[in-house]
Amino acid sequence: MKPGGICCRVVFWRITIVPTTNQRWVLASRPEGKPAPENFRLEEVELADPGEHELLIQAKYISIDPGMRSRLSADSYAAALQVGEVIEGAMVGEVIQSNNEKFAVGDLVTGGFGWQSHALSNGRGLAKLDASMFQGPLRVTAAIGVLGIPGLTSYFGLQDLGQPKEGETVLISSAAGPVGATAGQIAKMKGCRTVGIAGSKEKCAYVTGELGFDACINYKEVTNLEEAIKGACPGGVDIYFDNVGGEMLDAAIANTNERARIIISGAVSEYNKAEPRGIRNTLRFITHRLRMEGLVVFDYFKQFRDAQAEMGGWIMQGKLIYTEDISEGLETAPAAFVGLFEGENFGRRLVKVS
What we know:
Elements: E1 21-27, E2 40-46, E3 55-63, E4 91-98, E5 108-111, E6 118-121, E7 127-129, H1 149-162, E8 169-172, H2 178-189, E9 193-198, H3 201-209, E10 215-218, H4 225-232, E11 237-242, H5 246-253, E12 256-264, H6 283-287, E13 291-294, H7 304-316, E14 324-328, H8 333-340, E15 348-352
Parallel strand pairs: 8-9, 8-11, 9-10, 11-12, 12-13, 14-15
Antiparallel strand pairs: 1-2, 3-4, 3-6, 3-15, 4-5, 5-7
Helix pairs in contact: 1-2, 4-5
């Protein structure tokens, strides 16, 4: 420094403002038929300080899951959600306070904390995310999408229950959704002919264009779905990956080959019905020796990390792509959920909270 000069030092401090309240969506009333915004209530409650071994998480993204619909009314794969309880969903968040030696302030984490702006945790069921792995095509939102429950459902459902063989035909309903889209791409990697069913020209174009399916049926434009499947699958169906149920499931069953495998991942067409239609085409199970099996992906919990590592590699290599439908603000969560049952979403539906 020259004589007479002025030296100054600038110090930057990171200041974390700790919130005192939590916003959360709770079940206000049980839906009758299709869910409506009035079935949900936004609450603001006082946020307690983290206790011993606890940490406070600020939500960045939350998931909007169609499979949650059944639990709003009755017991399902888990007990029914009670009126007044926080609506369940997955969360990607950032640790903003921590008394837990396993988690530091600034860590990115994921867990099942539901539709709320903040969550207190003792660390159980909480997964720390390696921020360095989320780069290029692999975004942090993938942790609750293609690398979360939807993607893992596709991965284990198709490979463990479907056991695809090269040259077989795989038919997938709701093919533009996160489960169907991932299952179809895995089927293509296994050397299968893959046919999707979706509900618009735009979705079918996405399924055959970007995802690489061999064909896609727009079920809203056909008068006889069973015949449409027969036309798209002239050699019959060896594996049907079902996300819809009802009449679509029956139409697929009618086109199955001997010893075909039917994977029941979801039944979105049945969730809002007081008396679900169910399946009626059961004789073919005898004549064609069919096998149908449902899955709850948490049965594979111990294998999650290996599956996520493999799928993450596929994404980085460009072999597996995914689409996300993200709305802004926690206040949009109920409308985003209701829209799932109106065919609005295109890909994994999420809400950006902060």
